[in-house]
What does this fold into?
Amino acid sequence: MNQDRVYENRRNSYQGNPMERPEPFFAAQPLWGRSMEEQQEARERQRMQSYYSRTASDLQRLVETECDRMDYRGSMMYDEFPDRLMMEHTCRNIARQYGRENGGKDEKTAEEELLDLIGVLFYNEMFRRRSRRKHYYNLWL
It folds into this structure.
């Protein structure tokens, strides 16, 4: 009976002070999950993207969807020297998709006008993903 009381007191002490609560091994490791800097950077990035115009935010959504589709091991996105023609082709596909989603009247005009913006958004997203992957890859070597 006395031993049960000791275990009960030990369990209650953890509830009172969360700093004394034992952490599982994986949660105690500093490299597990996203760091505080990365979380802050993601929040700041979302805040800055909230200032985008409607067209730019629609294009950003399409670019992120395309990058999600291309995000796999061995993708041309992670080549040491990505193929410029394939990247331009991907930008044209995003422009065509945007033209189809938004009326589709002047697909050619919309494609030509927005191709530069799509390129900037796409290359920036590629750079961000390549940097993030390189960072995590270097942590585990």
Notes: The radius of gyration is 24 Å. The mean pLDDT is 78.
